[in-house]
Amino acid sequence: MLRPVVVGLDGSPESLAAAEWAAGEALRRGLPLRLVHAWVGLSSETSQLPELQTPRYWARRILRGAMDQLNERHPQVYLSAEQVARPAVDALVEAAAESELLVLGSRAFSGFGGYMAGSVALSTVARATRPVVLVRADRTPEDEHLPDAAGLPSERAPYRDVVAGVDVSHPCEEVLAFAFESAAVRNAPLRVVHTWHVPFAAPAAAATMTATAQRAAERALAEELRPWREKFPNVQVRTLVENGRPAQRLLQCAQDAGLLVVGRKVRPARLGTHTGPVTHAAMHHVRCPVAVVPHI
Known about the structure:
The chain is α/β, with parallel strands linked by helices. 40% of the residues lie in helices and 19% in strands. The protein has two domains: 5-139, HUPs (Rossmann fold), CATH 3.40.50; 142-295, Rossmann fold.
């Protein structure tokens, strides 16, 4: 059975942009699309409270409106929708576990409002066991593509690069699998970025240490990519390996990307939910859609 692409809806512009992106991704991957709206107030235990009737009406309209819009724009996509009477994070994490990927709306670091804009999105990303893609409200389908011959946004132009940030000192198979698959379904180039850092050293030794570390990092990345290049021979791959600050360099590389793919190390429950500094920076500051892929 095919795993669906799942999108969380709350009626905000961010979540509607996420639904549009999710429909396009479902079409690219040949998967069904499932819309989920979660709210505790949907519970039948409080069904007779008159103060909940208006919110319930708007909850139904959120799904109906999104379904009508997506059916009109993407009639080829098999679409379903569900209202869940549970806290949003719990419902989304559970939906993600049964999905190919989960798509959520996201605002910039300073944004407020809409349950996908802040704590719910962050908590869902930190707990999900499947990839989660965060989409900004101002993203359009044309933004994933290069400008056309006239310099105008166009869905008929080639896709922008998929950019993946990897750390070869830790397992990154899941991140590379998602990045290569995303590039393949778009027929887009893939840029793989690995940034390393040499501790402070005396000037006399710094140049030698830097050159040695650079060669080692390049060899390690080449070995990590070898099986994926063989599995996806049609994906054009470029690599960037350099000394520097990982978060800063990755944000720079993602400025003209169509999709950024980063990893999140799965931690034992007793250690709490964390995303790591590089992924945290990407989630808050990158303008293109950001895919956060959990890995061991």
